[in-house]
Amino acid sequence: MKIYVSVDMEGIGGIVLPDQLRKGEFFYQEGRQLLTNEVNAIVDALLEAGATDIVVKDAHATGFNFVPELLRPGATYLMGGTPIPNRFAGLDSTFDGAFLIGYHGMAGARRAVRDHTFSSASFQYVKLNGREVGEIALDSHLIGVHGVPVLLVTGDDAACREAKEELEGVAVYETKQAAGRHAALLKAPQQVRQEMREAVRAALAGRGGCKPRVIPGPYELEIRYTSTDMADGKYCDGVRSERLDGQSVLHRDDDLVRLLARAL
Which domains does the chain have, with CATH numbers? Predict the structure, then answer.
């Protein structure tokens, strides 16, 4: 059994503040430890379930947030900056499923810890074919083009609701209940790691009900930037890219991977 695991940081158990997420901030090393411990719990559960090939991608910010020395043997770890066309390096059609661990709600989600879509500094929202989407939907598509279904999504309650809306048959595990953008009712991280093992087993047992998520094209991706100068920097030819207003640009393409690589 081959499983690909993409790991963000905002939805990890015990994480709620920006200082836990950013390199150089006071609580960042604590955040890295929480992240790495949760990754290890996932890997342990997959090995116990009989997984023979596990790839774990560090999908947060720089892509270098795991503490390498503390990572559990038995998996391969993808770390470092990986652009959209290579976002899930090592993934192919031979994988039986994928997990999205520690994910978060899309930009503008109400009562969601660190809600954003790819960049809280740059994007107010992202719309695909007229519908607002977040990283759960877009990453599931990038995985789905390989014919691989997402089996498990973990994060706060907003992320879990979003996953259920986007993905047929997916299992979810709630690490916290959001009380605001930087506030949540937290489970103890040790409890999260214990319960995560059961969530992994349940997701694998139910994988027959999951299908690869592929969003049909052609595609229009609207991005509303946080300031006009960001939109000013985008070349708009009126065909593949069109300026809608001071802060919004609409990008078009028949290939979503190529579109995301150009627009994000």
Answer: 2-118+134-209 (3.40.50.10780), 219-263 (no CATH)
Query: So what's the pLDDT on residue 163?
Result: 98
Distance CA 60, CA 87 (A): 11
SS (H, E, C) the chain: CEEEEEECCCCCCCCCCHHHCCCCCCCHHHHHHHHHHHHHHHHHHHHHCCCCEEEEEECCCCCCCCCHHHCCCCCEEECCCCCHHHCCCCCCCCCCEEEEEEECCCCCCCCCCCCCCCCCCCEEEEEECCEECCHHHHHHHHHHCCCCCEEEEEEEHHHHHHHHHHCCCCEEEEEEEEEECCEEEECCHHHHHHHHHHHHHHHHHCHHHCCCCCCCCCEEEEEEECCHHHHHCCCCCCCCEEECCCCEEEEEECCHHHHHHHHC
pTM assigned to the model: 0.97
24-44 pLDDT, tens digit each: 999 999 999 999 999 999 999
List residues bridging with 77 in a β-sheet: 56
- Structure-token pair, residue 71: 């990572």
**Could you report how far apart the first and last alpha carbons of the chain are, in Å?**
33
pLDDT digits 0-9 by tens, 55-112: 999 999 999 999 999 999 999 999 999 999 999 999 999 999 999 999 999 999 999 9
Strand partners, 125: 224
